[in-house]
Amino acid sequence: MISKQILREAGYREWKQDHFQKRFEDEIGIKYHIDIVRLEIPNETLHVVWSPSMQIITPNGAVEIELVQWFNNDGKTSGNTIEDVEEYFERIWTFHGKPYYEKR
What we know:
alpha+beta
């Protein structure tokens, strides 16, 4: 399940209407940011989706990962939670060798 309230409670800030972002960091520096955008899709089955994405810098260039239709406004499509998204992106960041966005 996802909503604006859930995102705010999880530490995301709304920097533009329906655009949320959270920074992930540790003692070394800023690891990455997760952006989540609310999109309206005009069809019979799914009207609102929340699309999470992240960008990391690898030795071969920037990589952007976007999870399309990861969950919708009531969670019935996938059942995924904000914690699932954060865990997934952490695994991707680790897989790519932990490329920091910015070191202290």
